[in-house]
Amino acid sequence: MRIAVRTFAAYRQAVGSSMLTLDLPEGITPRGVWSALAERYPALRRFPPPSAYAVNDEFIDPERPLADADEVALIPPVSGGAATVALTREPIDPAALLAAVADPRAGAVALFCGTVREHSRERTVQFLEYEAYEVLAEREMRRIAAEAASRWPALGIAVVHRLGHLEVGEISVAIAVASPHRADAFAAARFIIDTLKQTVPIWKKEVWAGGEEWIGSGA
Questions:
Q1: Residue 82 in this model has a pLDDT that exceeds 80
Q2: First-to-last CA distance in the chain?
Q3: Which of 24, 54, 71, 121 is deepest in the core (most CB within 10 A)?
């Protein structure tokens, strides 16, 4: 069967094209496509395998069999390795995120910090409690980082979200993106926080004098 393959960043440079067409065995998986491509283009073997695979513009399980005429996108790891993604119950240190994405090729680093605000929906907030489905939350955060890296030329991405008890003024989520140009760094950081708030299974409880309420996912 015939499969279209999209490549990005170092993968694209190694194969010399952003789009290839391969004739491959029936039932091959996205991970099998990577193996077949690395056999055909030995220069790929010096790079780590994809951090994610997308088929027809949707992220999928790398072991799901493909169909004829599918388009497979091979998503390289961020900055030659996995993105820095974490859930933590300790205070977030923005300097640590900046260090995690530091790269001499970067012309810009966008840093976003979401903080606990004192007033929400005409109530005075005393503190927040964050809870997550941790395994799935980290997996989704990595998927979002990989998608951002496929859309913009990010040299490094770091995403950290707090769990547990947070006082007013504390950082609940922080995102750092390093890129050659500021427009790409800003765009990638905004995409990550906006998508994180919509899809990552994290919930917060607002506590105020005389009451409390679970608000939903996101910061």
A1: no
A2: 45
A3: 54
